[in-house]
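#struct-pred

JT: dropping the chains for the assembly here, can someone run the whole complex?
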Amino acid sequence: MTSFECVQLVVKTMGRTFAVLMLVLCGVIGIGRAQGNVRARDLGIPFDGTTGAFNAITDVKGVEVGNTTLIRGSGVLKIGVGPVRTGVTVVFPRGKSSRDPVFAGWFTENGNGEMTGTTWVEESGFLEGPVVITNTHSVGVARDAVIAWRLRNGPPSASGYSWSLPIVAETWDGYLNDVNGFHIKTEDVFQALDTAHGGAVEEGNVGGGTGMICSEFKGGIGTSSRTLSPKYGGYTVGVLVQCNYGQRDQLRIAGVPVGREIPGKPVWDDDVGSIIVVVATDAPLIPTQLKRMARRVSLGLGRDGSYSGNGSGDIFIAFSTDNPKAAAFTGVREVRMLANDAINPLFLATVQATEEAVVNAMIAARTMTGINDHTVVALPHDKLKEIMRKYNRLER
Amino acid sequence: MTSFECVQLVVKTMGRTFAVLMLVLCGVIGIGRAQGNVRARDLGIPFDGTTGAFNAITDVKGVEVGNTTLIRGSGVLKIGVGPVRTGVTVVFPRGKSSRDPVFAGWFTENGNGEMTGTTWVEESGFLEGPVVITNTHSVGVARDAVIAWRLRNGPPSASGYSWSLPIVAETWDGYLNDVNGFHIKTEDVFQALDTAHGGAVEEGNVGGGTGMICSEFKGGIGTSSRTLSPKYGGYTVGVLVQCNYGQRDQLRIAGVPVGREIPGKPVWDDDVGSIIVVVATDAPLIPTQLKRMARRVSLGLGRDGSYSGNGSGDIFIAFSTDNPKAAAFTGVREVRMLANDAINPLFLATVQATEEAVVNAMIAARTMTGINDHTVVALPHDKLKEIMRKYNRLER
Amino acid sequence: MTSFECVQLVVKTMGRTFAVLMLVLCGVIGIGRAQGNVRARDLGIPFDGTTGAFNAITDVKGVEVGNTTLIRGSGVLKIGVGPVRTGVTVVFPRGKSSRDPVFAGWFTENGNGEMTGTTWVEESGFLEGPVVITNTHSVGVARDAVIAWRLRNGPPSASGYSWSLPIVAETWDGYLNDVNGFHIKTEDVFQALDTAHGGAVEEGNVGGGTGMICSEFKGGIGTSSRTLSPKYGGYTVGVLVQCNYGQRDQLRIAGVPVGREIPGKPVWDDDVGSIIVVVATDAPLIPTQLKRMARRVSLGLGRDGSYSGNGSGDIFIAFSTDNPKAAAFTGVREVRMLANDAINPLFLATVQATEEAVVNAMIAARTMTGINDHTVVALPHDKLKEIMRKYNRLER
Amino acid sequence: MTSFECVQLVVKTMGRTFAVLMLVLCGVIGIGRAQGNVRARDLGIPFDGTTGAFNAITDVKGVEVGNTTLIRGSGVLKIGVGPVRTGVTVVFPRGKSSRDPVFAGWFTENGNGEMTGTTWVEESGFLEGPVVITNTHSVGVARDAVIAWRLRNGPPSASGYSWSLPIVAETWDGYLNDVNGFHIKTEDVFQALDTAHGGAVEEGNVGGGTGMICSEFKGGIGTSSRTLSPKYGGYTVGVLVQCNYGQRDQLRIAGVPVGREIPGKPVWDDDVGSIIVVVATDAPLIPTQLKRMARRVSLGLGRDGSYSGNGSGDIFIAFSTDNPKAAAFTGVREVRMLANDAINPLFLATVQATEEAVVNAMIAARTMTGINDHTVVALPHDKLKEIMRKYNRLER
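RK: done, full complex below.
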């Protein structure tokens, strides 16, 4: 039993009230996904660059990820009842107990989506709380819940403003999930926030990614990281995606036209869906530079074959965990800034980690059946290996 | 009794369930605010340009405005209980029963605020539903409520997407209101949506503007309009503001340095707060042009003395009610576009109506006492007239 | 004889070859404009805030301004011959011998104009050389000349890139000047660069502003500055405008509707023209913050009555002279950053200095006759004082 | 002898004066490049989608391309003398005799470059003249020359504004060319403008691409096109690139990691250089949509392996030749707009044509020796085919 199955079991058999405790238990009994599950590199897919210890966004020190996964019911859709295939994923730049903002920047390749709070990120250069990702129709509840959680965990800030402009993003899971049933509740968001952790990151049908579809295979959460050589500063770049985009016949994996090699009726006949991408680094980048980094995500998605269709909300945010206490209330701060001329290895790392995180999401996801017995199949691992071999791109 | 007082009475004495009916009654008995209340022009403040019939955003045909005003309790703040001084204001471009998007554009002068849904406005050039304005900590509930209201009033759209990226903006009312009590509920948003109407528009302490502060006087909702001469196409431009920004000593009214002429301890010593501005027109502008129009709002605020402080969320959206059915799902549409070289009268109208709407918000607002007996005084009409006379700027 | 007349004399009577020496002489004999000429404050126009020593952009330490003024011929336009009423103005952030870039940001209120090099400012956060302003049809020659001047004064940079993306902006002087005659030559640009200096700044019909029109009065170059109190860091903000925009009946000076109080046939019946605004500060702002500062220029123009017409190129750039050596080629730099929450006095200073610089441009400009005997009258000082008095806004 | 060699011969042996006539002759004697030269598809490189007749940007009806190629001297660099390896490429949206603007939008993936005129494109939604591409230090001369050429070919427009804000872009050829010698003259720009033509487009070491380097192989001009099926409107998308970017070990061709399969000392050890991309279509897109299209170029470059290094000026402009006469001076125009929901085939076509145009630039380019005997080798065709075969991606 993987930790993911453990979570499913917990969620199915118990109310949400005990789920948090059980999730901790799932972790304790040592059946974490990262140990039990296969990732893209495990299959021999060739990627460039050196990953961090977990090949995850959490390789950037301080970053914590939490998930709430809601899987309930089956069969015919009854709005407000289910079936439910959705969740919430959160990313804390400095861990869940920090109140210290991080420098940040964002970018949109195609804006058929929502990421609240970006106007203030753009203006101030700071990301003040966590990044939260859920389904399209639950952005609001998640947004207010972030403020409520902040207030539940400490007094309001002196200014009265307390994470008052949260970052909440979304992709649409209505093919599998009762998205119009508004199943995400404040407590579900609290749970994801409360259980955020470092180390291995759950992938696939988990958190906000639970009901998502990627290149018309089952998608969801994926992650990857790169570490630079000491020559380039030894920095780490981590990427986490909630992958719900892409048209199958465009899918390239490590340059190989995988999508068209796998026959079968696709879910859509179009590039719909969306992808939210969070980029973390410990390199000392100022907001201008982090915006540039966010823009490189497009190039990573380009490698995977994306053309960013009209229906896609392809929205990216990048932050740096360096420069603690930069968001002072008064006076002048000394902040560290990497030379623009030294930034290329970070750009390349962002492209590479994005490219891989998307594939990891598909590799980790399992076939899922949701509303009205809609089924989305997982990318078949054996078939994938066979295709990679055909194009001489399978690593031993 | 003005309609505003009527609304207050209704809201105080009855549950929200019956409030909608009573609001209609308030309207029927003919005590509309526009008749009973004083506006800036009534005081002799000189503004340029010709207004529409109501000097309101609703002079743009089809535009409807609705408000829910929550005023409950007094005395010491008890989070979650009150006092409550808040609300919701909605603006429908084509009336509440239309499902037809409008061309739109947006702009931020200072982004310490939220307007959800703007990423899709920017990308698509369309505003698909209403613009909703509330307090900072209620953006989420209002956002999801817009989707829920859409679904309550008709089946989901064919795509499954149903106003899934609502436009919800905010300003912060925590000086007077228990903003951390999350008092806005889904039903409050429904009420504002259900009761939207054309004709005279409530101003001052109403809707989302209930607890707002403008130039350190009591602020709130304000509106104004301009109609162009037939020579310039005879178009109408309407502006609605939720005014919660400004530093008193910078306030200029019709160019007169009113702020520094009125002594007294200001609320803040800074330009905090925010202002949300909605610009409507029936001129045939395409999205590129509407973005330009939104940018002119800054120039109107400049006339009033704004310097757009760091704490201010000064976010503007402009839409055109022309070009019905432009948001087709397939094929090619003929759309109407005004020549760029003919757009100046619309730009000037936007500046003028913005300048006046801000003043109207202050003129209409009444002194209010909120949490912890915080009191914000209204701009005193007699004193204002005296100052205008001193500078030879009072008409009549 | 003012220094300006001195310049005119030099330029009329001698070749450009000797003009540089004579210009220095003009300065030496002590007839600088700032001493001899009247500025807005001298007339009793009330402005807020404390100016620096010169009430000029050069109050920001290190900033140098240079001008080349070309006034030749009169009567009927003969393209390529004249009459010529044009020039070049340059602003060096750190003085003409520095090669050290400055942090910068830019903004466009209305983009019917050109400022080359902004794409790299936006991307890198740095302004690498001077800001140059000339007429619309001479942007190209000025742009390449900046590179040539850089190469003339030192070996290429190690990268081969040597100010290769210059900042050159323009406004259109074709009502008075033979703009299609391409009269600005490489040497004219060199002269402006070579003669840049600190201290008092020439205003009115000088440099790039020579043939410009502002609010349908004679316009040109104007400047102003503000110094903050030690409580707010003691920083200086300086603004320089090349003012060629505005519609007379909209003109407000210190809030007074001056434009409509002065009868007479206006030049245009529209808001055409353009305004280029350069904002300098010694406050430690990072690029994100300088972009915000540039955006405040709009609010200053709003105070003066601008509605930023379709034909106007209203383009602004802001830079900070703090953080020398921030543009390192490798490694990590410590840079200083003012807290966002401490930035308001700088925003207000930007608004105020912009408001005043525009008026200074008009006050300094003299009536000019150009091609085809087109004449643009200067704003009459006595009439202006009379109007200010009428509205109780003339300071003693 | 290919037409390209013909051009070289003409340019080497004659003054520029006769070159235009000879260029025509080169065309007449039927040795056009498109017939004689190999392109990527000819080698068996697999690309998706259906090309137009010329697989060139000129497949969009009305589009004309002109080049001036300057190749003079060899050996040691003497600034101002040579060796010269540079040129000018121009793209006319509606042919060289049209004065009718086109709808347009632009985007920057990385802004270490220049494209003048974009501020007005962004503001107005129109591209008013040709797109010109040259070397970094000749942008200015080319810019003013566009205005001069416009004036040479007809009276100024009524407004006095005559293509006054030209679009001129650049990439840096200083590794092969005496870029600091400013060898491009007004006449060279005129020649490119005068000789623009439809039909087959010269590629490789031609025009602005003469001295350019792509993925550390010889680069230059490349082009490609896609035509959509009637089901999707039958529209055409054409792309032209001036390719001077990329790091060899990142280069992917049709997904195959070609760069690392070809040993040898690369020119740089970094992603420097730049790429300018022009996208043309006859689909009825409004400016908002053309900006979206321009943004898809990044995804095409992603497929080729770009990570858009700090030193790269990756700037893209897209225009539509539909909607003639949309840029009216007065009144309201009916313009055609494709539904956003129908736009995906155009996005995909943009990605595909970009991907292929870059490869075409490298396939067409020949090994070149420039200043100081710097040599940049062409991508070896045979080796490329061998690599494609190794990865089972060579089409028969």
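JT: nice. The first strand of chain B starts at residue 64 and ends at 72. DSSP finds ten helices and 15 strands in chain B.
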